[in-house]
């Protein structure tokens, strides 16, 4: 019988799986304990799937499966798809006011405009008119009540995109305008919520506050964020010969769009097929908010019998769709003389916009992450879901987690100033650690040693303390330009908190030429999911990645799928794809055992797929059957060459009644150190250097993971700094294009940018090949820049005070914070 | 009729005057490699390269945002899009480097980035020079990527050399072509007029005094893409020979300098400014993106009369003059008299800007230009301060302080100037100037900044000016501003 030790010595050996119990029994005595510990932590019901074979450096750093198509312009996005010459183009009639009653919608002139073929509104919908994704509340068109500027009142289909847009302007709209609520705090005080308030509590937080040596409290505003996917919302709908439609859409959740389109048309789900080849960026903005356009286009396609396309002009896209939730947060925490949190309370108020959308889960995730990497002690965390008259805010990378973490990261800086210690010292003292490893929602934090080691490595590699000294000296001598430094950690929970979404399916076909097709429920939005899935299949079948082709995500291939969200794409779909491969392999092994080399007594137990062969036995008894031959023989012997796979994440649960449970399968960790220079006369600043160390377990593809870490950081930095959403007093978004909404550009890349993946720490849970999810966690590394800005500003008070610095910390906010600090501190000094 | 070369192939197409290059490509010709990200010239996803014969007859390629480039301006030009770069499986170095460096994730911005890298690669072929951070920033600052964080794109830019130089031969093959329009002479009734000389321009203006004038179209074309304007008639000034020259001149008042043709692009202007006005040249690095600077013109920036245009405050501070051409011939006026009210200028119907006078610096004169914006690159000013003065016997002389973003027009701060003129550059004088600023400006709040921020930061720019002057006289200067902004 083979062991893991032997396997790692076999050059070119395929990954081993399903041997966890055998391993523990067979290894040498000294490693048995360690192995046993590892094994003991494998709590999942799925097989151990860790690859211990390390060949060349970064053997898995494959290029994106579409890379060549990207650079040649051949990768087709929705609006690039060819359509019949009579295809229709849709433009939307949007509400000009934030709150009111639609008293007249005159569309006759619109119908008379050149090129117009169809005009539809609320009363033209045959099926459901509410397209709320989880909870009701999102009318497909305004019936009477208007809830935000940009809400869709009607749609026009015309012969050209421009004709449709021009026709929209001919509508006669009368609205009985009412006062709009744009302030989520006022809404919360009035009890205007889209969903009920939720509370998580551990221990006697009031007593902890009463007994504490210091009480630190503050409030903060954390701004929202526009997704700014480069490809705007788009879809193309073809009517089918029966009552249905085929929907091509830029979409993270094809199954939900299938459901909503069917419901709006009043037809069964099986009459609707949704296809997604790729998105030009998603980031959460196409999880629920890609469906309305598909529903509208489907209505028109069915009414006219013509292919119908929608692409939202950028300004419409930015006004109509929801964003990352702005949050108002408050905290009151009791700490001891060392700055260690004893307990307290945290309140987060998410500005949900006009309807629930995904806000329940988003505010929950903010609550789940209001501790970040620190034990809150005995704490109560309260999350409100405020209703305002703006677009319905939605999923965005981190899904509320970032907004929740901002509370505790602010608190760490505040505590440090209060007790006169370096913020990093205070952070480290508050990390989850043995004896304090249970979160306020009752989950044990696994791998606490990993976070400690990761931060210590980064502290060293970034030369944190030497730079801290240099910066302090510089600031003492520099009245105008101030430097700041900060290290902030990330601990991010991985799993959908809606338990049922933690499932995935895959469909594997092997054709008689040996080529392999894999399809799964996840969608490709640039994150490299399809590349990773191809790698999983190639690895399982012992083939070259180029022999595996992935096809567009389609609801008629893998049904009832979950959104590609919550960083879960590779975790869930990778396991499902692997499951399909394992099943097919078992069948091929059985076939080979029964039909091939029977006279030699080929050992079924020893069979494996490697380097394009089925291999059985070792040494002299080794037999190799080429993949193509195997496939041909199997086909001729009437063995099915197709399999489906399925996966459901084990162990997770959460009880909303008690606010306790284990919502996350595991946590992903990371940390960033940022150094900034601030001009305290103008508020301008420059990020000088960033160092990042991030945990992805055993990486499925280090090149792709590095891209997620770097890209996530820059996007997070943009959220913290230059990306400012502004509405006017009437509730109209005035930052409605890239001229006024500034995402990071090339020059914002820090001149020194050291980014590394943590090595030597496989996932303690049985994830796919012991990797970890990487989509969202690095986003929150961007907070280091914000904390460094606060550090630079704190130097104006000789580090006696941490300034309030709401986000995004634009030059304006930085300047006004500097002014406030300077006038207060100078006044205080003058008084002395 | 638009007559041009598309990826080495002759192409002829009809289009209405407001059609953009992007609409022509995607909707008329069905060539969809080039993407629309914003249709406002701010994201670079639609970046293409446009070739024009240089003085030596060789084609020079510059990057442009196809979404706001008028399709008719392609006439006689050589358009290169991402669709044409690869020859079969052989990728252009810009493409190969992007693949090798993992420079694409979602891939939607990638065609634009490839085309920006292509133009950089072409520049390197024609005039090899080190790829400094500044050059890379200029080459890539106009291309937004939401996925990668730009590091792999930087690596791709720096490693193009290491890939085989698979470059389509047709990039050089085209001899300079005369468009059909040029061969047949100017049709004064065309809806998109492209006069080639000042005489033709005045004919066009006389015939169609209400036509829209366009040069780089970097602002005007947004009226089409964002507000769906249809232009009945457009006069394109970019091919008027007299508007494309820079001439040394001496004014009647004895000032020496240059008359800069109104259709001279920022990209052409930038190297000319480096020697006399480093601060002005530096400002141009931060004006729009490379794609915008390749098309946008000084004349357009002035005629547009936006209160947040970047160059008018600088030209006001330098005491610039304008030469206008119209039905009654030419006339000159000081730039001080040009901006009347929000988006209203002294231009009369049928009049156009012919040239802008940029004076040479006089002895002892200094110019400082400081632009405040949310993002350093490719952003519009919240506040821009342009300050010119000279020191004479320890006092400030001929001080001109002009601001953008502080009023309905680009405007000088008369009260603040008076507070400094003839004063020693001490704290008291600058305190008085800062206080006087309140009489000069009552700024408003908008998407780019609050009134409070504008007031405070404008006053602080005067404090910075004070510190800069004071620092110049000390032996141990301290940093008074960030190195990334210092000029």
Topology of helices and strands:
The complex is a heterodimer of chains A (832) and B (487).
Chain A: H1 4-9, H2 20-26, H3 29-40, H4 67-72, E1 88-94, E2 100-106, H5 108-111, E3 116-120, E4 145-146, E5 152-158, H6 161-168, E6 172-177, H7 184-189, E7 193-202, H8 205-211, E8 214-222, E9 234-239, E10 245-249, H9 254-265, E11 272-276, H10 291-304, E12 308-311, H11 314-320, E13 327-335, E14 341-351, H12 359-368, E15 378-386, H13 401-419, H14 423-430, H15 448-461, H16 464-477, E16 481-494, E17 503-510, E18 516-520, H17 529-541, E19 548-550, E20 553-554, H18 569-595, E21 608-610, E22 613-616, E23 623-626, H19 627-636, E24 642-648, E25 653-655, E26 660-662, E27 666-679, E28 685-694, H20 702-720, E29 752-757, H21 783-794, H22 811-831
Parallel strand pairs in A: 1-12, 10-11, 14-15, 18-19, 28-29
Antiparallel strand pairs in A: 1-5, 2-4, 2-6, 3-5, 7-15, 8-13, 9-10, 9-12, 11-20, 13-14, 16-27, 17-18, 17-24, 21-22, 22-23, 25-26, 27-28
Helix pairs in contact in A: 2-3, 9-10, 12-13, 13-14, 13-21, 17-18
Chain B: E1 2-6, E2 9-13, H1 21-28, E3 47-53, E4 59-65, E5 78-80, H2 82-85, H3 93-100, H4 110-126, H5 133-140, H6 151-159, H7 170-173, H8 180-184, E6 192-193, H9 198-207, E7 212-214, H10 220-225, E8 234-236, E9 246-250, E10 256-261, H11 266-274, H12 278-285, H13 290-293, H14 298-304, H15 311-317, E11 321-326, E12 329-334, E13 339-341, E14 344-345, E15 352-359, E16 365-372, E17 383-392, E18 395-404, E19 411-412, H16 414-420, H17 427-440, H18 451-472
Parallel strand pairs in B: 1-5, 6-8, 7-8
Antiparallel strand pairs in B: 1-2, 3-4, 3-5, 9-10, 10-15, 11-12, 11-15, 13-14, 16-17, 17-18, 18-19
Helix pairs in contact in B: 3-4, 3-6, 11-12, 16-17, 17-18
């Amino acid at each position: 019988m083979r062991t893991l030790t032997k396997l790692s010595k076999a050059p070119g050996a395929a990954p081993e799986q399903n041997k966890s119990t055998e391993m523990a029994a067979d290894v040498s005595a000294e490693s048995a304990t360690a192995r046993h510990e590892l094994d003991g932590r494998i709590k999942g019901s799925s097989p151990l799937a860790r690859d211990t074979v390390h060949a060349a450096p970064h053997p898995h750093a494959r290029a994106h499966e579409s890379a060549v198509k990207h650079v040649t312009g051949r990768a087709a996005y929705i609006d690039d798809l060819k359509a019949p010459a009579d295809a229709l183009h849709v433009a939307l009639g949007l509400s000009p006011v934030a709150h009111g009653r639609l008293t007249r919608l005159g569309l006759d002139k619109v119908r008379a405009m050149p090129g117009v073929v169809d005009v539809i509104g609320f009363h033209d919908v045959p099926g459901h008119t509410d397209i709320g994704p989880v909870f009701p509340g999102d009318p497909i068109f305004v019936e009477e009540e208007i809830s935000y500027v940009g809400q869709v009142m009607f749609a026009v289909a015309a012969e050209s995109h421009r004709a449709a847009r021009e026709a929209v302007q001919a509508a006669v709209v009368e609205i009985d305008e009412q006062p709009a609520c744009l302030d989520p705090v006022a809404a919360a005080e009035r009890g205007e919520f889209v969903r009920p308030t939720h509370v998580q509590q551990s221990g006697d937080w009031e007593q902890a506050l009463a007994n504490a040596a210091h009480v630190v409290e503050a409030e903060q505003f954390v701004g929202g964020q526009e997704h700014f996917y480069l490809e705007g919302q788009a879809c193309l709908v073809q009517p089918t010969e029966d009552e249905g439609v085929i929907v091509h859409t830029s979409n993270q959740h094809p199954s939900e769009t299938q459901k909503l389109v069917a419901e709006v048309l009043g037809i069964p789900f099986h009459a609707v097929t949704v296809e997604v080849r790729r998105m030009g960026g998603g980031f959460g903005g196409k999880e629920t908010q890609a469906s309305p356009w598909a529903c509208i286009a489907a209505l028109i396609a069915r009414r006219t019998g013509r292919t119908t396309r929608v692409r939202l002009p950028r300004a419409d896209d930015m006004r109509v769709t929801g964003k990352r939730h702005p949050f108002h947060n408050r905290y009151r925490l009791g700490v001891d003389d060392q700055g260690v949190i004893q307990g307290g309370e945290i309140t987060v108020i998410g500005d949900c916009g006009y309807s629930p959308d995904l806000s329940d889960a988003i505010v929950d995730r903010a609550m789940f992450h209001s501790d970040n990497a620190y034990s809150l002690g005995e704490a109560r965390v309260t999350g409100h879901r405020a209703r305002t008259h703006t677009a319905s805010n939605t999923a965005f990378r981190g899904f509320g987690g970032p907004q929740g973490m901002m509370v505790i990261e602010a608190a760490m800086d505040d505590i440090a100033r209060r007790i006169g210690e370096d913020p990093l010292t205070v952070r480290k003292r508050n990390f989850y650690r043995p004896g304090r490893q249970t979160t306020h929602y009752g989950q044990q934090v696994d791998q606490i040693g990993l976070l400690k080691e990761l931060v210590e490595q980064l502290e060293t590699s970034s030369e944190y303390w030497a730079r801290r000294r240099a910066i302090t000296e510089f600031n003492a001598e520099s009245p105008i330009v101030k430097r700041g430094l900060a290290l902030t950690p990330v601990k991010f929970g991985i799993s959908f908190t809606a338990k049922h979404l933690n499932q995935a399916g895959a469909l594997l076909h092997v054709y008689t030429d040996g080529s392999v097709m894999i399809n799964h429920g996840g969608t490709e939005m640039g994150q490299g999911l399809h590349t990773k899935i191809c790698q999983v299949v190639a690895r399982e079948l012992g083939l070259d990645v180029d022999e595996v082709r992935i096809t567009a995500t389609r609801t008629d291939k893998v049904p009832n799928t979950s959104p590609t969200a919550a960083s879960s794409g590779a975790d869930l779909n990778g396991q499902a794809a692997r499951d399909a491969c394992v099943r097919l392999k078992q069948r091929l092994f059985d076939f080979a055992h029964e039909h091939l080399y029977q006279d030699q007594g080929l050992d079924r137990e020893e069979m494996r797929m490697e380097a394009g062969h089925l291999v059985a036995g070792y040494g002299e008894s080794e037999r190799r059957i080429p993949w193509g031959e195997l496939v041909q023989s199997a086909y001729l012997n009437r063995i099915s060459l197709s399999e489906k796979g399925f996966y459901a994440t084990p162990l997770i649960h959460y009880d909303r009644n008690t606010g306790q449970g284990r919502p996350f399968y595991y946590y992903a960790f990371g940390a960033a150190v940022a150094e900034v220079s601030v001009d305290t006369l103008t508020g301008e600043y420059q990020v000088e250097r960033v160092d990042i160390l991030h945990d992805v377990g055993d990486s499925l593809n280090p090149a792709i993971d590095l891209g997620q870490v770097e890209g996530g950081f820059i996007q997070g930095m943009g959220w913290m700094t230059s990306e400012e959403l502004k509405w006017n007093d009437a509730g109209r978004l005035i930052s409605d294009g890239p001229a006024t909404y500034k995402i990071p550009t090339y020059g914002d890349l820090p001149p020194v940018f050291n980014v590394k993946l943590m090595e030597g720490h496989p996932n303690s849970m049985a994830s796919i090949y012991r990797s970890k999810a990487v989509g969202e966690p690095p986003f929150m590394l961007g907070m280091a820049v914000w904390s460094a800005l606060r550090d630079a500003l704190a130097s104006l008070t000789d580090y006696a005070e941490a300034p309030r610095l709401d986000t995004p910390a634009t030059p304006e906010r930085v300047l006004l914070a500097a002014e406030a600090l300077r006038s207060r501190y100078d006044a205080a000094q003058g008084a002395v | 009729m638009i007559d041009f070369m598309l990826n080495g192939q002759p192409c002829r197409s009809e289009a209405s005057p407001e059609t953009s290059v992007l609409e022509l490509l995607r909707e008329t010709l069905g060539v969809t490699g080039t993407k629309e990200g914003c249709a406002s010239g701010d994201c670079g996803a639609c970046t293409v390269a446009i070739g024009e014969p240089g003085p030596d007859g060789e084609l020079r390629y510059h990057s442009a945002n196809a979404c706001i480039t008028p399709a008719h301006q392609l006439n006689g030009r050589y358009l290169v899009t991402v669709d044409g770069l690869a020859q079969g499986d052989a990728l252009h170095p810009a493409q190969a480097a992007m693949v090798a460096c993992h420079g694409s994730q979602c891939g939607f911005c990638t065609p634009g980035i490839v085309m920006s890298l292509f133009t950089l690669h072409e520049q390197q072929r024609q005039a090899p020079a080190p790829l400094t951070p500044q050059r890379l920033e200029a080459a890539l600052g106009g291309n937004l990527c939401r996925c990668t964080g730009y590091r792999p794109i930087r690596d791709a830019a720096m490693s193009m050399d290491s890939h085989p130089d698979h470059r389509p031969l047709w990039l050089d093959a085209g001899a300079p072509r005369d468009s059909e329009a040029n061969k047949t002479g100017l049709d004064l009734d065309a809806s998109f007029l492209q006069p080639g000389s000042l005489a033709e321009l005045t004919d066009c203006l006389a015939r169609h005094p209400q036509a829209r004038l366009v040069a780089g179209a970097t602002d005007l074309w947004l009226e089409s893409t964002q507000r769906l304007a249809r232009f009945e008639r457009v006069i394109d000034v970019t091919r008027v020979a007299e508007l494309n020259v820079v001439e040394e001149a001496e004014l009647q008042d004895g000032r020496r300098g240059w008359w800069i043709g109104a259709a001279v692009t920022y990209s052409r202007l930038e190297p000319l400014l480096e020697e006399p006005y480093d601060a002005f040249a530096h400002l141009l690095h931060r004006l729009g993106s490379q794609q915008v600077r390749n098309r946008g013109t000084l004349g357009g920036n002035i005629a547009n009369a936006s209160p947040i245009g970047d160059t008018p405050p600088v030209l006001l501070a330098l005491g610039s003059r304008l030469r206008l051409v119209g039905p009654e011939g030419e006339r000159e006026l000081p730039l001080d008299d040009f901006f009347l009210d929000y988006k209203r200028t002294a231009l009369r119907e049928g009049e156009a800007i012919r040239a802008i006078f940029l004076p040479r610096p006089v002895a002892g004169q200094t110019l400082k230009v400081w632009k405040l914006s949310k993002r350093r690159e490719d952003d519009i000013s919240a506040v821009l301060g342009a300050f010119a003065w000279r020191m004479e016997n320890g006092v400030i002389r001929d001080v001109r302080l002009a601001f953008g973003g502080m009023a309905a027009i680009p405007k000088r701060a008369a009260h603040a100037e008076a507070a400094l003129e003839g004063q020693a550059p001490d704290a008291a004088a600058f305190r008085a100037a800062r206080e006087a600023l309140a009489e000069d400006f009552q700024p408003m709040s908008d998407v780019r900044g609050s009134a409070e921020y504008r007031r405070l930061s404008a006053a602080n720019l005067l404090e910075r000016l004070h510190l800069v002057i004071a620092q110049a006289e000390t032996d141990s200067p301290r940093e008074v501003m960030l190195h990334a902004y210092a000029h």
